[in-house]
Amino acid sequence: MPHTHPSPAIDHPTSPPQPAAPPADLSLEERLTLIDAAMTVRLNEAAVAYEVNTAHIPTEPVDLADIVTGPLDTGPAPLPELYPTPVAALLQRAHHRLLTDGWCAGALVDEDGARCMLGAIRAEAGGNRGLEADAAAVLLDAIRRHFGNHVDTVPSCNDAHDTDRVPLRMVDQAAHLADARGL
Q1: Backbone φ, ψ for residue 104 (5° rounding)
Q2: Once rounded to an integer, what is the mean pLDDT over residues 55-77?
Q3: Buried b / exposed e across 24-47, counting CB within 10 Å, b at 16+?
Q4: 3-state DSSP call for residue 105?
Q5: pLDDT over 90 for what percent of the chain?
Q6: From the CA atom positions of the chain, what is the Rg in Å?
Q7: 121 closest CA partner among 144, 140, 146
Q8: Positive or negative torsion for Cα 98, 102, 107, 109
């Protein structure tokens, strides 16, 4: 009968052993270096344990092109629900046209199809000169509320800006103002 040796007892701790506190006679830098070394050892052990524990899980390589995609060209944003009043709705459509077709200065319409504030109103008025004049008057009022009475015309305000940020905001505020007035 073969002689068997008893196997030694294997101690499986339930929690990781706590590192011993560094001696008090060390400087702060020396203590931090010791703690950094101890933490590096623990992190390396945890990384190995993770690899061992997950090695049996089958994985397939992932092609990042399947996950990371750029923005899709979905076309212009849909026009939001229009204001119930005609002047406010016209100004809202003009604002949307500036957003989708672009804004320009110095012309009603530039060679790329971008429009100034008045050009967008005119395009959306559809030949209704009275509606166009009412919308331009409300827009001028909104501009003067913001910049003061020294602004003479809508085109002078439009052409005073280098970007579309302020003109777009003025047309949007004019739409709110016309709606508040019931126009």
Answers
A1: -140, 165
A2: 72
A3: eeeeeeeeeebeeeeeeeeeeeee
A4: coil
A5: 52
A6: 35
A7: 140
A8: negative
